[in-house]
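Sequence, please.
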């Protein structure tokens, strides 16, 4: 079995060497450093931290009954992760899983499988053979417990919500390069800042691309790229409008895993035809608007539209037909998929007498349409 090794280079700037030992006198090549006093104001909830899963808004963690884990940019960058399964194992009670043979994101928690039910900025994410590149993600929120049931019957254990990277007012450009075995190459460009000399219009452009062979199976080449531009317009101090567009491509032929034949399991052989191919094109347009009326009422609206165009040839051998032969599988698939989501929320902070109230009203609409054309041959030829 071939093994994949990814090499990464990390640079870290430190104030100076620190030490911790029981000796009264430290060695000459060490010196002590006194850290300044840190004062924490915990008047608002637990250390003042807030949650925003499901786009509900800023709610104090002490006021929230849900258990929320967060995967931030630091954890994503330290692991050179390109998909969320590469970092899920860092969270307690959550483990990466498999959906559609690994061609969609999935995880399991507390004995429940996510079944591909994922969210992006509070919307249901593309559920058709889609793997979200973490280069477009600011953080990943995992909502565990009974509260996750509110987002769909398929996720009683936990719900995963991606939060996208947003345009910033200060110019910033970053580039990341990752090299590995099996010709693995990954590039990520992230640039953001104001548009021209304007102060209220900001942009962000993220481009990620990677290429490489499968570390296990021959004839399984992995190639993927994503382009993610966005604009945010602060038309007043009370409101903003954000437009996000996304184009992605994923090429990874279907592999049939290990097979059992002639009385043994064959781990190191690939049974994928060289003619096998996979061409999947994904698109998304998202529009987000929020406006505050005075100090107590806020209105939010969001529209998201996904498309998937899939053109695949699945060809290979995958199960034992008899003691000395493997059955063949061939399938030609053409898939046209679209998905829409609309959300409207009204948030109000009201006061009557000596009582404070928070009012949350919302409506959500989701639809999807899938048109599949398929020809297949199962067991019509053998090896």
């Amino acid at each position: 079995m071939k093994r994949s090794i990814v090499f990464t280079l990390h640079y870290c700037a430190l104030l100076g060497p620190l030490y911790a030992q029981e000796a009264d006198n430290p060695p000459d090549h060490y010196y002590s450093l006194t850290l300044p006093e840190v004062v924490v104001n915990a008047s608002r909830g637990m250390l003042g931290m807030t949650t925003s899963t499901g786009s509900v808004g800023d709610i104090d963690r002490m006021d929230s009954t849900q258990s929320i884990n967060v995967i931030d940019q630091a954890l994503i960058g330290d692991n050179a992760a390109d998909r969320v399964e590469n970092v899920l194992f860092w969270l307690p009670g959550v483990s990466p899983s498999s959906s559609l043979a690994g061609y969609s994101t999935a995880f399991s928690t507390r004995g429940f499988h996510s079944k591909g039910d994922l969210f992006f900025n509070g919307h249901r994410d593309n559920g058709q053979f889609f793997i979200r590149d973490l280069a477009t993600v600011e953080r990943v929120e995992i909502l565990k417990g009974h509260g996750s049931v509110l987002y769909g019957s398929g996720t009683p254990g936990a719900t995963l919500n991606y939060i996208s990277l947003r345009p910033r007012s200060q110019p910033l450009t970053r580039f990341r390069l990752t090299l590995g075995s099996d010709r693995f190459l990954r590039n990520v460009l992230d640039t953001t800042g104001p548009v021209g000399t304007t102060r209220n219009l900001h942009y962000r452009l993220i481009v990620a691309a990677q290429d490489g062979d499968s570390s296990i199976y021959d004839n399984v080449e992995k190639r993927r790229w994503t382009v993610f531009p966005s604009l945010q317009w602060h038309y007043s101090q009370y409101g903003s409008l954000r437009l996000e567009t996304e184009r992605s491509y994923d090429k990874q032929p279907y592999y049939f895993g290990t097979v059992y034949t002639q009385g043994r399991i064959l781990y190191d052989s690939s049974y994928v035809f060289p003619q096998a191919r996979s061409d999947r094109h994904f698109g998304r347009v998202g529009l987000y608007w929020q406006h505050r009326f005075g100090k107590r009422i806020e209105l939010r609206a969001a529209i998201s539209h996904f498309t998937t165009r899939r053109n695949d040839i699945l060809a290979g051998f995958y199960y034992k037909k008899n003691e000395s032969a493997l059955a063949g599988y061939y399938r030609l698939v053409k898939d046209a998929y679209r998905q829409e989501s609309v959300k409207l929320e009204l948030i109000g902070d009201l006061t009557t007498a000596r009582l404070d109230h928070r009012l949350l009203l919302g409506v959500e609409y989701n639809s999807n349409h899938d048109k599949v054309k398929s020809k297949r041959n199962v067991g019509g030829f053998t090896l």
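The first helix runs from residue 73 to 78.
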